[in-house]
Structure formats: structure tokens, C-alpha cells
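This part of the workshop introduces the protein records we will be handling. A record pairs a protein's sequence with a compact description of its fold. As an example, a complete record with its sequence and its C-alpha cells follows.

_____
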Amino acid sequence: MRSKLVMLYMTYIVCSAGLFSIDASAIDITTTEGRTYKNATVTRTEPDGITITISTGVIKLYFEELPSALQRKYGYDPQRANSYRTRAPTGPPGPTAANAGPSAIPQPTASNRTPEPINASPISERSAPRRNLVLPRGWETSFQGGSETRKGLARLLSPWVQSAPNTSGAPIEIYQSVMYLMPLPEAVARLGIRQQLASKNAVVCPGFPKDCFFFYAVDGAFEGGYNRMLIVTDNGDQVVSVELISEHPESIYGDRGFTLWLRADANAYCYNFVEHRTKTRPDYKIYAELNREEHDKWIRLRDDGNSDIDAVRADIALISYNSRPRHRGESQYRVLEATRWYIPRPLAELLLFCCQR
């Protein structure tokens, strides 16, 4: 009886090797697009690609992105890869057969596979690999509560985009040469960030689909007087947005507190959508405007004629009014916190779609 169980277990390992094989040695991988991943360990192989672990996290690379030597090493078969993409369910990666004991052998269920891009066309039909959002299955029906925040997010985005469940990739620059759906390690390198990223946090703001987006925080001195950066990613650690935060925005807005107060919205509730930070007093106001880049300058976005704008910058400020200043010369109108959120069109369309569900 025991010998039969051993044989069944070994047979399962052999049959699963194509999906769960691991290469424990660390190597440097350079993709056909020129991206290099240092000291990468291949922790998972699938018919359409490999999953690697590096110092900043876990990334999936499709075979079409890899040089021919690595394609051969890990058994790339274009027909098998396309067939796998059309039927592969989504879900977080599970344990591998190589490091699991007999009682922990993974079953071929959705929860054991890396999330695949939703609505992704077969890569073989494209001249180059095009990334798509990596979201868990059922994202379009999993929403987070908070009607006031959802309304505020919709008011912010609706003058610019139309609602659409857009999960497609696009060559859009978000911020300082960081492109939409760029792998996180490459974005970190382009931004020149040398310090360790803070732990990964889920975006729990109403209007964002649940368990779909995450952010990494970085403290530093950023352009415009901001002291904190949030790098927002999808389930595949692809960058979808960047937000800058200033908790001491005096240098950003100066003495414009009164002007902003007159244009601010007393009914707005949230001023930092990525971290879901809301005003703590009903007499606070929130000022928000969308800006677009034109000839290396940022100008305010109009409510019409903006269909060709690929990305915007949302400048948002939390403002207080104090009828009794502490000393002579102190303004009655004070900007308490400011955010600068860089949003690409596909993400804006998807968020507006979620807000209006």
C-alpha cells in the first residue's frame, strides 16, 4: 500500500513539473526589451512564462519577453502557451510541488495559479508583449463601501473620462519616465529610489475594486516640495499610478489658502484616495483640480475637448478656516495637507466604472 502511495506521489510530481518546477540558483535575466533583473531566482514555471523572485518582490515574465536560451531552458512551446492563456483561471500563486511534502501537494485549482491579465489577447498575435492589468477574477463585482468617497472620486474623474472596465495596457507615461504597467523594480530604478520600499499595503478606498490594487510608500524630498511618494500597483506588481504627499504644504501653496478656500468643495470628503484619508471636521474644505501637461507645463484641464489626454495630475488640498489666528499675520485659511496624484486614462476609466456600479 505504501509503495503505491509513493508511486502516485512521484507520478503527480512528474506530471506537475511543467507548472511547478523551480530553479534554485540565482541568475541575472535580461529581457528582449532590455530590462535586467539581478540575482533572480526562478520560483515557478508555467506554459506561458516563468515567475522570478528578486530583492523587491515577485514578478512574472512571459516567454516572449525572454531570450531564446531561456525559452529553450524552460520549455517554451508557443502553441501550448496560447492554449494555457485561454483556459488558465486566476488567483494567487500557491505552494510548489518542489518544496511541498506529500500532505501539501497542491491541487490544480484556481487558487494555485498566478493571476493572469484580464481580457489579454494572445501574445503571439502581437509584435511585442503588451502587458494588461493583473486583477483577480470577479474584480468587477467586488466593491468597497463608502458612498461619499465614491461620489467624490467620480466627480474628480468624470470631467475627463467615460466609465469603462478598461484593463488594457497602453504606452502611457505616468510620472518621470515611469510607464503604465511597468514592472515595479524597473520603475524604482527609473525613479532613482535607493532606500528600501515600505511594506506593501492594500488600497482600501471606496471606488477602487477590492483586493485589486496596492501601494508602496517612500519617504524623501520630491519635486514641488512633497515629502512622501506612494507607488500604486496591481496584483502583478505593475505600476498603475503615483501619488505625492506633503504634510507641510506651506511651500507648495504659500498664501493661496483664501483663494483655494473660495474654490473648494465643502461637501467633498476624501483628499487622499490612495490611502483613503478623509477630513476629520465638517468645516474643513477640499480643493481639487485636474491638470494636463502641455509643452512641459501643467495647465488646468477643461471640462470639454480632453478626449486625447492620456494622463492627468490631480492636485488636491485639505483646507481649514480659523476665525481666531494665534498671532498677527497668520492666515485664517491654512492648507493642512496636499496630494498630487498622477492618473493614467485606463485606470481613471476603470475607477469611474467602479464608482458608478
